[in-house]
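chain below, 473 aa
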Amino acid sequence: MSDSPSLIVTQEGLQAAFDRAHTASRQDMMPAAAERRCRLDALEALLQDHRDRLADAVAADFGHRSRHETQLLEFFPTLEGIRHARRHLQRWMAPRRRPVSLWFQPGRAELRPQPLGCVGIVTPWNYPIYLATGPLTAAFAAGNRALLKMSEFTPATAAALADLASRYFSRDELAVVGGDQSLATAFTALPFDHLLFTGSTAVGRQVMRAAAANLTPVTLELGGKSPALIAPGYPSAAAAARILAGKCLNAGQTCIAPDYVLLPADTLPAFVQAARQLVTTRYPDLASNPDYSAIINDRHWQRLDSLLADARSRGAEIVPLCESSDVSRRRLPPTLILNPSDDMRVMQEEIFGPLLPVLTYRTLDEALAYINAHDRPLALYLFDREPARIRRVLDGTIAGGVTVNDTILHIAQDELPFGGIGPSGMGHYHGQAGFDTFSKLKPVFHQSRLNAMRLFDPPYGALFERMLKVLLR
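prediction:
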C-alpha cells in the first residue's frame, strides 16, 4: 500500500517522480521473486477491486464505450497476462545456461536476467487500461519501477488509475502521469532505462528522436495498414463475419483492426451482402446500441468524416452497413469503401475507425504484390483452408503478427510476442518476450580452475603456432 497518497503527476512533479523511481531502482537492483509477485498481486487487486470504477472512467472518456467490450478487451487480457507472468516468473528469472565451445570447456556460460531499473510506458487512448497495465505487468515481472504516461484524451481513466496506484503501490514503485503533448514531450526526454510507446507511427518517430538524446532503448508499438486477405474459394460470409468482428470492436479504434480487405473480384457482391446482414443483425439501432462504442472525440470524428469525403470525391463507392448513426453521440456506422485507389487518404493513413476499404484482385500473386509494395503491417489476416497456400502467404509476406481464419486473436496469446516491424513498430512484449524486453540478459562466463588458456599466453613459440594452426584450420 502507498506510503503517501498522491495525485496524478503533472509537469511540476515529473522530475521528482522520475528521481524517486530511479533512485529506488538503484537501491534495490535485484528484487526477489516474492517482491515481484507482490507487485503483480497488487496490480491484479487494483483491477479486480475497481473494475466498475475503471469501466465508468473509460466510458466517460469515450462518451460511450461498450461495457462488455471494456470487460473483454481491457480487463480479461490484462488479468490473464498477470496470472501468466506470476505462473512462469520463477522460470523466467532463473539463469539460462548456454553451450560453451570445446576450446573453453570445462568453463560454463549463462544469461542472467536483471531488471533494467526505471522504465517509462506511454499509453494511447484507445485501450487505456490494457495498454497501460499490459506493459506494466511485464515491467513489474522483470523487477522494474515504472512511470506511466496516460493519454490527454482519457483524463478520467488517468485520474482513476493515479488514485488507485497511490493506494496499491508506493510512490517509488509506480507513478501515473497525466497532461498534454508538452508533458508527453518532457516525459519521453527523461533518461529512462527503457521506454515503451504505443501510438501512431508519426508520434513514434518523435518518441524515438527524444529517446536518442539519452540513448534510451525503445520499444515502439505502432500501427499502419493491416490487410485482411481472403483467398480464392474461402466462403465470403465466414470471412465477412470474422473481419467485421475485428473491425467493429471499439468502433474500429484498434491498432490491429483490419484496415482493408483484399478479395477475389467475383466475390465482392457476396462479401458486401454478408457484411451488411451481419452488422444489421449484430448492432440493431446502432445509434443507441449499448454494444457499439463511440468515436473517442470530435477531432477523430471529423478526421474519419474527412477520409470518407476524400474517398467519395475521388470516385470510391461508399456503402454504409446500416442506416442509423448519431453525430451528436459520435456513433459512426461501419462503412465499406469499394474500389479505393492509392491516391485516397483512406489508403494512405491508418484509419482507426469503422471504415473498411475493399479491394479486389485477379490472382493471389497480384494480392501479395500489393501487400509487399506497402509498409510492413502490424497485423495480417489470412482467410484460407489450403495448407500449401497458407504457407505460401506466410512465407511470402512480412508482418508484425498473423491470425489465420480470424482477426485480432494473436494479440491475446501470452506465449506469442507482440510487436511490429519497421513503420509498424520495433521490439516485442507479452509473456516472456515482455519480461526479456524489460530485462538485461547479462551474459556471464565462469572460468574453470582447469582450463587451456595458459597455452595461449606469451611468449609465443612453437606450441602456440601449432595451436593457432588448429584454431584457424
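The CA atoms of residues 240 and 275 lie 6 Å apart. Residues 67-93 form the longest helix (27 residues).
thats it, cya
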